[in-house]
Write a structure and sequence with these properties.
Blueprint lengths: L1 H39 L9 H27 L11 H45 L2 H10 L2
């Protein structure tokens, strides 16, 4: 009779422990889900696999080197203005050269910025996947991560 009484108390404690763990896990899951939604934002690369994201990132990094070289070349080819060429036609021609050079620099700088933004977006997606996981692992991390 004594063993049966102690067994009943142990079962009650075990049920209470399971209940507390379930409530704490549910609360933790909800808290991590809200945090993930707040930091997630727009994810244009959500459907891509990790391997595709890494190869895309390395391709953009290779392109970035070429685009930076174009920017450096455009800066080197910048026309140095002379104060007064002496004729209106000469001044107009100098203005056109300067305008073309400035446009080339702006376009190259925009290409550099665009590639850098793409790389940052890819790295953000990879970081989010490594932090929160994927599939069932993602749900388990939401449940257990404090």
């Amino acid at each position: 009779m004594q063993n049966r009484h102690q067994s009943g108390r142990a079962t009650g404690s075990l049920v209470l422990l399971i209940l507390v763990l379930g409530v704490a896990g549910g609360w933790n899951y909800h808290r991590n889900l809200q945090f993930e939604k707040a930091t997630e934002g727009l994810r244009p690369y959500q459907a891509y696999s990790v391997e595709d994201l890494e190869s895309l990132r390395s391709a953009y990094a290779g392109e970035l080197n070429g685009v930076r070289a174009d920017l450096d070349s455009a800066k080197r080819n910048r026309a140095r203005g002379v104060r007064d060429v002496g004729s209106i036609a000469g001044n107009v021609e100098q203005f056109q050269r300067t305008t073309r050079a400035s446009s080339a620099i702006r376009m190259a700088a925009a290409n550099v910025a665009e590639r850098e933004d793409q790389i940052k977006e890819l790295e953000r997606e990879l970081d989010m996947r490594s932090r929160f996981g994927e599939g069932l692992d993602r749900h388990f991390k939401r449940l257990t991560t404090i």
